[in-house]
Structure prediction request, 282 residues.
Amino acid sequence: MPMPTTKEGLQRLLDFFIYGMLRAAESLGNAPLFLRSVEEEGLRKFLLIDMPKFKASANAKEACEAYTKSIDEGGLFATTDTTFSGDEDTVHAEIGDLCPYRRVCTMRHDERHPVHCIRAFALAEMLRIRLDADFDWKLDRFGRPCRVTLSRTHWG
Amino acid sequence: MTDVWVRLEETIDELSQVTDIKSAAVVRRDGLVVTHTLPDGVDPKMVAAMTAAIVGTSEMATIQLAQGRFVRAIIESDEGKLLSLGAGEEALLVALVYDDANLGLVLLAMERAAKQVEKILRDSAG
Prediction:
């Protein structure tokens, strides 16, 4: 399969698609719906196949840790600078410079567009699929590191 | 189930009792279903996602065409109508109504239910 020849090339390819996807999602009028659906479909397809070592705990914080570890072990991207705190209902995540989406988020931040955290969408969807519970997320801070809070929805 | 969910279910059950309304649902703006009275054979997840998409696109069109605030979306078809509107910042309300429904009556009931949903969610958020 033809692939970008360098790591930088691969990153640029990712930037290209993520940036375009975010702009398209916004132009359709509901970016959260679009991005949540992208993550849901992707996870449903690949979570069981490509992450056989991922064993989710009923505890949300532990599930986020296990999922993130499996991302790293699966070779998708390095997550050693991602840390979690919290409990079964609320998870605080800190995401450092190794995040592969950081360049696009920075671009959008500089362009004064909303920052839609792909990592947070993925974690919330993973929790919904594996824990059968809805979690809302909030980007508390975009920076180095980014801070995200996921909390069990108040919808019931 | 939590008290919030029970109250939302009561609201949607009450709305579904209105003459001319076949079924109804409360969905999240990100396309997840909360509670519904949709009939068997209809996928509530699909309805929730489609409602969120319809409202999102309609709101965007309203903005782009400088038509002021989006109020509601009405989709008419041979067998009935699909009505959807916002219920606060987080939720949407959707109802499937009969083709010859009294729209004034239905919309009145939907707007009342939407306000109720908004209040329930606002109260639960503290």
